[in-house]
Amino acid sequence: MKKLLMSVAVLLATHFSVAVASAQDCTTQVKTITPGTLIVAGYDYAPFSVPKPDGSLGGIDFDIVAAVAEENCLKVMPMAVDPSAVVQAVVAGKADVAIGGWNRTESRAKVLDISTPMYLDPTAIFSKEGIDTIKGLEDKTVGTVSGYLFVPQLQAILGDKLKLYPNTVALAQDLDAGRIDVAVDGYTYGIYSQKNSGAYKGIQIKIPQPDERVGSTVRPPQAGVLYTKGNESLGKALDAGIERLRKEGKIKDAVVAAGFDPALAEVGEPYFVK
């Protein structure tokens, strides 16, 4: 896993490292909380956001943001927190951006701005039986992580049968221990963990059939970088950097290197989901 993330980092950032290193007077026009520094809030959502033992971050999202920061003469300051604290860190002005497969949703766009999409982030059902419908959850004890876009919709369907967790690790532990019957989490995170760390043994990970009650099953969410509402200079820098990396094929290369279908990098036109 570490070798993979290191290779992804080199894949995404090398071009910008050369370009920025050649500049004699590197200055930035991008506004940030601390001038000249981009504070990046992330959590444990491999392979997109990966906290390291020394408190720093890695992963596909982090490498993309780091490449944009370097191109714009910004130092990167990572901030590893729980999923429930990531969005609030940006809203409260403690971080400039949030990473970790954050979906482009209408509700988030009301309180934060969101970059152009990087990749698709399908929702998945984790179960021993191979459940692949939302209806199949209705008589089960289901767990998911606080803050996910589909939480209010699942709560409306499942009521008190839905249990919320602070992070994916706690969710996976209870699923493994049988304290919940089913988990609803990110498809990419689950497949990556299953293939690379031996997680979710005996668990089938299925993208559910479309169900109008849960919007993410009808239109797969696009993942973007969350950033401070109204910070146009930062938004333009993020969008330009992401689009450049996409045109160069580097985001697709990173998705493939992580073991995913390259189609996840084919995001189409930007859109928000409910």
Write the layout of secondary structure elements.
Layout lengths: L1 H20 L15 E6 L7 E2 L5 E2 L1 H12 L3 E6 L2 H9 L5 E2 L7 H6 L1 E2 L4 E2 L2 E5 L14 E4 L5 H8 L3 E4 L2 H10 L4 E5 H10 L7 E3 L8 H4 L3 E2 L2 E2 L4 H16 L2 H8 L17
Parallel strand pairs: 1-4, 1-5, 9-10, 9-11
Antiparallel strand pairs: 2-3, 5-14, 6-14, 7-13, 8-11, 8-12
Helix pairs in contact: 1-2, 1-10, 2-9
Q: What radius of gyration results from the CA coordinates? A: 18 Å
Q: H/E order of the elements?
A: HEEEHEHEHEEEEHEHEHEHEEHH
Question: Given the C-alpha coordinates, what overall shape results?
Answer: globular
Strand content: 15-25%
Kindly state the number of beta strands: 14
Count up the helices. 10
- Report the span from N to C terminus: 33 Å
What does the average pLDDT come to? 89
Low-confidence stretches: 1-24
Across the major sheet, the strand order is 4-1-5-14-6
Classification by helices and strands:
alpha/beta
Instruction: Let me know the largest β-sheet.
Output: 5 strands, mixed
Helix content: 25-40%
Features:
single chain; 274 residues; five-stranded mixed beta sheet; disordered N terminus
Report what the structure shows.
With 274 residues, the chain is α/β, with parallel strands linked by helices. Helices cover 38% and strands 17% of the residues. The protein contains ten helices and 14 strands. It has helices at residues 2-21, 60-71, 83-91, 106-111, 151-158, 168-177, 187-196, 215-218, 232-247, 250-257; strands spanning 37-42, 50-51, 57-58, 75-80, 97-98, 113-114, 119-120, 123-127, 142-145, 162-165, 182-186, 204-206, 222-223, 226-227. The protein has a five-stranded mixed β-sheet with strand order 4-1-5-14-6, with helices on both faces. Strands 10-9-11-8-12 form a five-stranded mixed β-sheet, with helices on both faces. Strands 2-3 form a two-stranded antiparallel ribbon. Helix 1 runs parallel beside helix 2 (60-71), helix 1 packs antiparallel against helix 10 and helix 2 crosses helix 9. Mean pLDDT is 89; it is low at 1-24.
